[in-house]
User: What shape does this take?
Amino acid sequence: MENTAMQKNLDTIKNWVDAINRNDVEAEMSYWQPDGEFTIVPIGVTFKGIDEIKAGGQKSANMIGGQSAEGRKQITHISGGATWAVVEYEVQATIVGPVAFGELIVLSAGEQREVITHTCVVFLMKDSKLLCGSEYFDTTAVAEQLGLSHEMLSNIYKALGRV
Assistant: This one.
């Protein structure tokens, strides 16, 4: 019984990632419980309920839309149990400006940079659907790929009150 639930959970995660890679937000939402919750830990954002998760997914798809699935999210590890699942993937994205952190302009309008992140998402599952997820990735590595120096990062963290 537990093996069947585990396999269904792993299939859900694989299908969810495939939907993201296709920029298919509707399919992406079909893998969530209506009262799901998704937190992007490094930036401190939590989406509660299917409508907020959908809006976040659509915003993400719009930001990186048009990129091929082969280069977007490549699963490097997946595991799970009857009530949980974990997926790790490498994300390759082209970030197009403008991008700013407060007054600091990182990318000007039209400027672009390639960014690679290694991401881990931990899920609580219910009836083989996503109930609660927490996404983790290294924001410092992303910022450095966008051209921010360690001094700039330190100043940003100080301004945010984290140092």
Remarks:
- The mean pLDDT is 83.
- The beta strands are 32-40, 45-48, 73-80, 84-96, 99-101, 104-107, 112-126, 129-137.
- The longest strand covers residues 112-126.
